[in-house]
Prior knowledge:
GO molecular function, one term: 3-hydroxyacyl-CoA dehydratase activity
Radius of gyration: 19 Å
Number of domains: 2
Keywords: Lyase
Order of helices and strands: EEHEHHHEEHEEHHEHEHHHH
Helix content: 40-55%
Number of strands: 9
CATH topology of the largest domain: 2-enoyl-CoA Hydratase, Chain A, domain 1
Shape: globular
Largest sheet: 6 strands, mixed
EC number: 4.2.1.150
Protein name: short-chain-enoyl-CoA hydratase
CATH superfamily of the largest domain: 2-enoyl-CoA Hydratase, Chain A, domain 1
Strand order of the largest sheet: 1-2-3-4-6-9
Bound molecules: hexanoyl-coenzyme A
Mean pLDDT: 97
CATH architecture of the largest domain: Alpha-Beta Complex
Amino acid sequence: MAFETILVEIEEGIATITLNRRDVLNALNSQVFTELAEAAENLAVDDSVRAVIITGGDKVFAAGADIKQMALLGAVDVAIGLRPSKIAFERLENMPKPVIAAINGYALGGGCELTLAADVRVAADNAQFGLPEIKLGILPGGGGTQRLPRLIGAGKAKELIFTGDLINAEEALRVGLVNKVVPADQVLAEAKKMAKKFVSRGSVALSLAKACINEGQRMDLEMGLEYEHKCFSLLFATEDQKEGMKAFVEKRKPNFQGK
Length: 259
Ligand code: HXC
Protein backbone atom coordinates (compact mmCIF):
# COMPACT_ATOMS: atom_id res chain seq x y z
CA MET A 1 0.00 0.00 0.00
CA ALA A 2 1.64 3.22 -1.14
CA PHE A 3 0.73 6.35 0.79
CA GLU A 4 2.55 9.65 1.37
CA THR A 5 1.76 10.53 4.97
CA ILE A 6 1.68 7.04 6.46
CA LEU A 7 3.73 3.89 5.94
CA VAL A 8 2.15 0.45 6.02
CA GLU A 9 4.25 -2.69 6.47
CA ILE A 10 2.94 -6.22 6.83
CA GLU A 11 5.09 -8.88 8.49
CA GLU A 12 4.03 -12.25 9.90
CA GLY A 13 0.35 -11.34 9.84
CA ILE A 14 0.87 -8.04 11.67
CA ALA A 15 0.37 -4.76 9.83
CA THR A 16 2.20 -1.73 11.21
CA ILE A 17 0.91 1.69 10.24
CA THR A 18 3.47 4.44 10.94
CA LEU A 19 2.46 8.10 10.85
CA ASN A 20 5.03 9.84 8.70
CA ARG A 21 5.06 13.62 9.12
CA ARG A 22 8.00 13.78 11.50
CA ASP A 23 8.91 17.45 10.85
CA VAL A 24 5.55 18.58 12.28
CA LEU A 25 5.35 16.01 15.11
CA ASN A 26 3.05 13.85 12.94
CA ALA A 27 0.34 16.53 12.89
CA LEU A 28 -2.68 14.93 11.30
CA ASN A 29 -3.79 16.84 8.21
CA SER A 30 -6.69 15.87 5.97
CA GLN A 31 -4.40 13.76 3.79
CA VAL A 32 -3.34 11.67 6.80
CA PHE A 33 -6.97 11.06 7.71
CA THR A 34 -7.90 10.11 4.13
CA GLU A 35 -4.93 7.74 3.88
CA LEU A 36 -5.63 6.22 7.30
CA ALA A 37 -9.24 5.63 6.29
CA GLU A 38 -8.13 3.87 3.09
CA ALA A 39 -5.48 1.80 4.88
CA ALA A 40 -7.96 0.73 7.55
CA GLU A 41 -10.49 -0.29 4.90
CA ASN A 42 -7.87 -2.37 3.08
CA LEU A 43 -6.42 -4.00 6.20
CA ALA A 44 -9.87 -4.91 7.52
CA VAL A 45 -10.48 -7.22 4.54
CA ASP A 46 -6.89 -8.42 3.99
CA ASP A 47 -6.89 -12.05 5.13
CA SER A 48 -3.10 -12.04 5.49
CA VAL A 49 -3.43 -9.44 8.26
CA ARG A 50 -4.47 -10.69 11.70
CA ALA A 51 -3.55 -7.65 13.85
CA VAL A 52 -2.74 -3.99 13.30
CA ILE A 53 -0.29 -1.74 15.16
CA ILE A 54 -0.43 2.02 14.79
CA THR A 55 2.59 4.08 15.80
CA GLY A 56 4.16 7.46 15.23
CA GLY A 57 7.70 6.13 15.43
CA ASP A 58 10.18 6.33 18.28
CA LYS A 59 9.94 10.07 19.11
CA VAL A 60 6.31 11.20 18.99
CA PHE A 61 2.94 9.62 18.35
CA ALA A 62 1.08 12.69 17.05
CA ALA A 63 0.67 16.28 18.31
CA GLY A 64 -2.91 16.44 17.09
CA ALA A 65 -4.75 17.56 14.03
CA ASP A 66 -2.80 20.01 11.85
CA ILE A 67 -3.55 23.38 13.43
CA LYS A 68 -2.05 25.35 10.53
CA GLN A 69 -4.46 23.61 8.15
CA MET A 70 -7.44 23.87 10.53
CA ALA A 71 -6.83 27.59 11.10
CA LEU A 72 -7.91 28.23 7.51
CA LEU A 73 -11.12 26.20 7.63
CA GLY A 74 -14.75 27.27 8.01
CA ALA A 75 -17.53 25.16 9.48
CA VAL A 76 -18.51 23.60 6.15
CA ASP A 77 -14.86 22.82 5.31
CA VAL A 78 -14.57 20.98 8.63
CA ALA A 79 -17.88 19.15 8.18
CA ILE A 80 -16.78 17.87 4.78
CA GLY A 81 -12.98 18.05 4.79
CA LEU A 82 -12.37 16.52 8.23
CA ARG A 83 -15.04 13.84 7.92
CA PRO A 84 -12.37 11.26 6.89
CA SER A 85 -11.01 11.55 10.46
CA LYS A 86 -14.29 10.14 11.78
CA ILE A 87 -14.35 7.47 9.08
CA ALA A 88 -10.71 6.48 9.72
CA PHE A 89 -11.17 6.19 13.49
CA GLU A 90 -14.39 4.19 13.15
CA ARG A 91 -12.82 1.81 10.65
CA LEU A 92 -9.92 1.17 13.02
CA GLU A 93 -12.25 0.77 15.98
CA ASN A 94 -14.60 -1.61 14.20
CA MET A 95 -12.24 -3.72 12.12
CA PRO A 96 -12.69 -7.40 13.01
CA LYS A 97 -9.09 -7.76 14.21
CA PRO A 98 -7.17 -6.26 17.11
CA VAL A 99 -5.65 -2.79 16.77
CA ILE A 100 -2.83 -1.76 19.13
CA ALA A 101 -1.57 1.81 19.51
CA ALA A 102 2.18 1.96 20.27
CA ILE A 103 2.81 5.40 21.72
CA ASN A 104 6.08 7.29 22.17
CA GLY A 105 6.16 10.94 23.21
CA TYR A 106 3.19 13.22 22.64
CA ALA A 107 -0.28 11.84 21.90
CA LEU A 108 -2.31 15.06 21.89
CA GLY A 109 -5.67 16.11 20.54
CA GLY A 110 -6.47 14.08 17.44
CA GLY A 111 -3.34 12.00 18.18
CA CYS A 112 -4.72 11.01 21.56
CA GLU A 113 -8.11 10.40 19.97
CA LEU A 114 -6.50 8.12 17.39
CA THR A 115 -5.09 6.00 20.22
CA LEU A 116 -8.60 5.84 21.72
CA ALA A 117 -9.88 4.24 18.51
CA ALA A 118 -7.42 1.37 19.05
CA ASP A 119 -8.37 -1.64 21.17
CA VAL A 120 -5.36 -1.39 23.47
CA ARG A 121 -2.62 1.15 24.11
CA VAL A 122 1.04 0.47 24.91
CA ALA A 123 2.88 3.62 26.01
CA ALA A 124 6.48 4.65 26.47
CA ASP A 125 7.47 5.90 29.90
CA ASN A 126 8.06 9.30 28.22
CA ALA A 127 4.60 9.43 26.63
CA GLN A 128 2.32 12.40 27.31
CA PHE A 129 -1.40 12.45 26.72
CA GLY A 130 -3.90 15.25 26.52
CA LEU A 131 -6.83 16.82 24.76
CA PRO A 132 -5.68 20.47 24.57
CA GLU A 133 -8.36 21.52 22.06
CA ILE A 134 -10.08 23.74 24.64
CA LYS A 135 -7.01 26.00 24.53
CA LEU A 136 -7.63 26.51 20.80
CA GLY A 137 -11.27 27.44 21.31
CA ILE A 138 -12.57 24.09 20.06
CA LEU A 139 -13.43 20.70 21.58
CA PRO A 140 -11.98 17.23 20.95
CA GLY A 141 -13.73 16.46 17.67
CA GLY A 142 -12.07 13.13 16.90
CA GLY A 143 -14.13 11.09 19.34
CA GLY A 144 -12.53 12.44 22.52
CA THR A 145 -15.75 13.51 24.19
CA GLN A 146 -17.25 10.07 23.52
CA ARG A 147 -14.47 7.48 23.72
CA LEU A 148 -12.47 8.99 26.59
CA PRO A 149 -15.33 9.05 29.17
CA ARG A 150 -16.33 5.52 28.12
CA LEU A 151 -12.75 4.40 28.78
CA ILE A 152 -11.78 6.29 31.93
CA GLY A 153 -15.08 7.64 33.29
CA ALA A 154 -16.79 10.99 32.83
CA GLY A 155 -15.19 12.75 35.82
CA LYS A 156 -11.55 12.33 34.79
CA ALA A 157 -12.42 12.84 31.11
CA LYS A 158 -14.11 16.16 31.92
CA GLU A 159 -11.10 17.28 33.94
CA LEU A 160 -8.75 16.54 31.02
CA ILE A 161 -11.05 18.07 28.40
CA PHE A 162 -11.99 21.20 30.40
CA THR A 163 -8.38 21.98 31.42
CA GLY A 164 -6.54 20.78 28.32
CA ASP A 165 -3.78 19.66 30.71
CA LEU A 166 -1.38 16.89 29.76
CA ILE A 167 -0.80 13.76 31.83
CA ASN A 168 2.26 11.54 31.80
CA ALA A 169 2.38 7.82 31.10
CA GLU A 170 2.25 6.84 34.77
CA GLU A 171 -0.92 8.86 35.31
CA ALA A 172 -2.38 7.55 32.04
CA LEU A 173 -1.81 4.01 33.33
CA ARG A 174 -3.33 4.85 36.70
CA VAL A 175 -6.55 6.21 35.18
CA GLY A 176 -6.83 3.37 32.65
CA LEU A 177 -6.07 5.40 29.55
CA VAL A 178 -3.26 3.01 28.62
CA ASN A 179 -2.86 -0.73 29.17
CA LYS A 180 0.87 -0.88 29.68
CA VAL A 181 3.89 1.40 30.14
CA VAL A 182 7.34 0.24 29.04
CA PRO A 183 10.75 1.89 28.46
CA ALA A 184 10.66 4.12 25.37
CA ASP A 185 12.88 1.86 23.25
CA GLN A 186 10.65 -1.17 23.89
CA VAL A 187 7.24 0.18 22.88
CA LEU A 188 7.05 -1.27 19.38
CA ALA A 189 8.55 -4.60 20.52
CA GLU A 190 5.98 -4.81 23.33
CA ALA A 191 3.14 -3.96 20.92
CA LYS A 192 4.38 -6.69 18.56
CA LYS A 193 4.59 -9.18 21.43
CA MET A 194 1.00 -8.38 22.34
CA ALA A 195 -0.08 -8.59 18.69
CA LYS A 196 1.57 -12.02 18.34
CA LYS A 197 -0.29 -13.27 21.37
CA PHE A 198 -3.60 -12.02 19.94
CA VAL A 199 -2.75 -13.62 16.58
CA SER A 200 -2.08 -16.99 18.27
CA ARG A 201 -5.68 -17.09 19.52
CA GLY A 202 -8.70 -18.11 17.45
CA SER A 203 -9.30 -15.14 15.16
CA VAL A 204 -13.05 -15.75 14.78
CA ALA A 205 -13.49 -15.87 18.55
CA LEU A 206 -11.36 -12.76 18.97
CA SER A 207 -13.25 -10.78 16.33
CA LEU A 208 -16.60 -11.76 17.87
CA ALA A 209 -15.34 -10.87 21.35
CA LYS A 210 -14.35 -7.45 19.98
CA ALA A 211 -17.78 -7.06 18.37
CA CYS A 212 -19.50 -8.01 21.65
CA ILE A 213 -17.54 -5.38 23.57
CA ASN A 214 -17.95 -2.64 20.94
CA GLU A 215 -21.58 -3.33 20.03
CA GLY A 216 -22.42 -3.91 23.70
CA GLN A 217 -21.53 -0.31 24.46
CA ARG A 218 -24.40 0.78 22.20
CA MET A 219 -26.92 -1.49 23.96
CA ASP A 220 -28.48 -1.81 27.37
CA LEU A 221 -27.20 -4.70 29.51
CA GLU A 222 -30.02 -7.06 28.61
CA MET A 223 -29.54 -6.63 24.86
CA GLY A 224 -25.77 -6.82 25.26
CA LEU A 225 -26.04 -10.11 27.11
CA GLU A 226 -28.36 -11.46 24.42
CA TYR A 227 -25.92 -10.37 21.70
CA GLU A 228 -23.08 -12.03 23.60
CA HIS A 229 -25.06 -15.26 23.93
CA LYS A 230 -25.72 -15.36 20.16
CA CYS A 231 -22.03 -14.78 19.36
CA PHE A 232 -21.03 -17.40 21.93
CA SER A 233 -23.42 -19.94 20.39
CA LEU A 234 -22.19 -19.13 16.88
CA LEU A 235 -18.63 -20.01 17.83
CA PHE A 236 -19.71 -23.61 18.35
CA ALA A 237 -20.12 -23.77 14.57
CA THR A 238 -16.39 -23.11 14.09
CA GLU A 239 -13.51 -25.56 13.66
CA ASP A 240 -11.50 -23.41 16.06
CA GLN A 241 -13.91 -24.23 18.88
CA LYS A 242 -13.59 -27.97 18.14
CA GLU A 243 -9.81 -27.66 17.94
CA GLY A 244 -9.52 -25.49 21.08
CA MET A 245 -11.46 -27.91 23.25
CA LYS A 246 -9.90 -31.04 21.69
CA ALA A 247 -6.44 -29.59 22.33
CA PHE A 248 -7.33 -28.98 25.97
CA VAL A 249 -8.52 -32.56 26.41
CA GLU A 250 -5.39 -33.89 24.64
CA LYS A 251 -3.17 -31.61 26.78
CA ARG A 252 -1.54 -29.83 23.80
CA LYS A 253 -1.52 -26.33 22.32
CA PRO A 254 -4.39 -25.60 19.93
CA ASN A 255 -3.68 -25.01 16.27
CA PHE A 256 -6.33 -22.48 15.28
CA GLN A 257 -7.14 -21.98 11.59
CA GLY A 258 -9.44 -18.99 11.92
CA LYS A 259 -12.52 -20.81 10.66
C1 HXC B 1 0.53 21.70 13.10
C2 HXC B 1 2.26 21.33 14.54
C3 HXC B 1 1.38 20.76 15.49
C4 HXC B 1 -0.01 20.68 15.15
C5 HXC B 1 3.36 20.73 16.31
N1 HXC B 1 3.47 21.27 15.09
N2 HXC B 1 2.10 20.40 16.58
N3 HXC B 1 1.82 21.78 13.36
N4 HXC B 1 -0.38 21.17 13.95
N5 HXC B 1 -0.89 20.11 15.96
C6 HXC B 1 4.67 21.76 14.43
C7 HXC B 1 5.14 23.09 15.00
O1 HXC B 1 4.46 24.16 14.40
C8 HXC B 1 6.59 23.06 14.61
O2 HXC B 1 6.76 23.35 13.24
C9 HXC B 1 6.98 21.58 14.77
O3 HXC B 1 5.74 20.87 14.67
C10 HXC B 1 7.62 21.29 16.10
O4 HXC B 1 6.75 21.73 17.12
P1 HXC B 1 7.22 22.67 18.35
O5 HXC B 1 6.01 23.32 18.89
O6 HXC B 1 8.34 23.55 17.92
O7 HXC B 1 7.78 21.57 19.36
P2 HXC B 1 7.84 21.65 20.95
O8 HXC B 1 8.29 23.01 21.40
O9 HXC B 1 8.63 20.45 21.36
O10 HXC B 1 6.32 21.50 21.46
C11 HXC B 1 5.65 20.28 21.25
C12 HXC B 1 4.13 20.45 21.52
C13 HXC B 1 3.60 21.64 20.71
C14 HXC B 1 3.91 20.70 23.03
C15 HXC B 1 3.46 19.13 21.13
O11 HXC B 1 4.02 21.48 19.35
C16 HXC B 1 2.11 21.76 20.73
O12 HXC B 1 1.51 22.23 21.69
N6 HXC B 1 1.46 21.38 19.61
C17 HXC B 1 0.02 21.53 19.46
C18 HXC B 1 -0.75 20.52 20.30
C19 HXC B 1 -2.25 20.69 20.16
O13 HXC B 1 -2.80 21.75 20.52
N7 HXC B 1 -2.90 19.67 19.62
C20 HXC B 1 -4.37 19.67 19.43
C21 HXC B 1 -4.67 20.12 18.04
S1 HXC B 1 -6.41 20.24 17.76
P3 HXC B 1 7.62 24.63 12.76
O14 HXC B 1 7.47 24.62 11.28
O15 HXC B 1 7.05 25.81 13.44
O16 HXC B 1 9.00 24.29 13.23
C22 HXC B 1 -6.88 18.67 17.39
C23 HXC B 1 -8.33 18.51 17.01
C24 HXC B 1 -8.64 17.08 16.66
O17 HXC B 1 -6.13 17.76 17.43
C25 HXC B 1 -9.79 17.01 15.71
C26 HXC B 1 -9.89 15.64 15.06
C27 HXC B 1 -10.40 15.72 13.67
